[in-house]
């Protein structure tokens, strides 16, 4: 690797570290509490918890057709 390429790699690394240092951080306990509140507030909209209405379920079993 040439010194110019090495210098460019180091400059990119420094820029990335500056970006990461500027990110606002919160405590894990606060993030967990907020996530739990969000889940509880949106539980009524969660298809895994309340199911999908039969009429709007794109994955329902196709109906068979019988002719007599």
UniProtKB/TrEMBL annotation:
Gene Ontology cellular component list: heterotrimeric G-protein complex
Annotated compartments: Cell membrane
Membrane topology: Lipid-anchor
Domain G protein gamma: 3-68
Biological processes per GO annotation: G protein-coupled receptor signaling pathway
Keyword entries, A-Z: Acetylation, Cell membrane, Lipoprotein, Membrane, Methylation, Prenylation, Transducer
Gene3D superfamilies reported for this sequence: Transducin (heterotrimeric G protein), gamma chain
Gene Ontology molecular-function annotations: G-protein beta-subunit binding
Primary localization: membrane
InterPro entries: G-protein_gamma, G-protein_gamma-like_dom, GGL_sf
Keyword Transport: no
Family according to the record: Belongs to the G protein gamma family.
General function of this protein: Guanine nucleotide-binding proteins (G proteins) are involved as a modulator or transducer in various transmembrane signaling systems. The beta and gamma chains are required for the GTPase activity, for replacement of GDP by GTP, and for G protein-effector interaction. Interacts with beta-1 and beta-2, but not with beta-3.
Quaternary structure and interacting proteins, as annotated: G proteins are composed of 3 units, alpha, beta and gamma.
Protein name: Guanine nucleotide-binding protein subunit gamma
Lineage: Eukaryota, Metazoa, Chordata, Craniata, Vertebrata
